[in-house]
Predict the structure of PRC-barrel domain-containing protein.
Amino acid sequence: MVKIKASKLRDVELITDTGMRLGWVYDLSFDEKTGELLVIVAEPDEDLDTSQFVTTHEGLLLIPISAVKSIGEVIIIDSSKLAVKSKLRSTGRHS
């Protein structure tokens, strides 16, 4: 296993496996009880329509760590595991 320091990830570009530029690493979010890495908090690319993505109230993208395919010069995100609002909506009641 290769170890990577969190400080080295700051400002690394995030790109999906389909070539969509998502943005750049802004921060990481951990579970404070377990220490498990949960999400990458990313500053979105200026051309990205963030309306379909899960974001913070500041407009930062929340990328689940489970969607990360590889980390190198860029971080490759599995687009099928990317959290988008349409996947998270409950089926709810239909009138």
About this structure: The mean pLDDT is 87. Residues 6-82 form a domain with the SH3 type barrels. fold (CATH 2.30.30.240). DSSP finds two helices and six strands in the chain. The longest helix spans residues 6-9.
